[in-house]
Amino acid sequence: MDTIEAWIRALTLPSDEHVEAACTADVVVVRYGIFEGRDAIAERIEGRDAVTAWLRRSPEGVTWSASPQDGRWRYRIEIDGFVNHGWWDIVERDGQVAEVHHRADAIDQTPPDRDQVLAEHAARHSKDHSGET
After folding, report:
1. How many other CB atoms sit within 10 Å of the CB of residue 93?
2. What are the pLDDT tens digits along the chain (133 aa)?
3. CA 4, CA 21: separation in Å to the nearest integer?
4. How many C-beta atoms lie closer than 10 Å to residue 4's C-beta?
């Protein structure tokens, strides 16, 4: 598995195991603002444990994909019909992600409410195991 595939797996299935496979121990993720302050750093996450915790904030069901463009990675994120794109500038070391600069495109649609998405997921999951249709 190459570096970007390992990174996408860690994003999609955030666990200690996947983040360890994808990232160096001293990994740094720099996330930039989405609305105002698009060039300002919104968050700086350092180390595998912090990156794992950051990734676990995303609701279940998020899908990611990426393709190389001009020395950068153009990503796509989707959940429950919400789609956005952005750019990753990734520094690799020894086949792992050492640093990511994460810049989302301006959002042109309202993202789903995280609590609502989690509640709907829990309701679907509960229904799947209760035998209801």
Report:
1. 13
2. 799 999 999 999 989 999 999 999 999 999 998 766 677 888 999 999 999 999 998 888 889 999 999 999 999 999 888 888 999 999 999 999 999 999 988 776 555 555 665 565 555 545 444 444 4
3. 11
4. 19
**For the chain, domain boundaries:** 3-107
Does the pTM surpass 0.85? The reply is no
Q: What angle do CA 81, 82, 86 make, to 5 degrees?
A: 140
Please name the fold of domain 3-107: Nuclear Transport Factor 2; Chain: A, (3.10.450)
Contact by Cβ (8 Å): 56, 14: yes
Neighbours of 18 (CB within 10 A): 19
One-character DSSP codes across 66-90: EEEETTEEEEEEEETTEEEEEEEEE
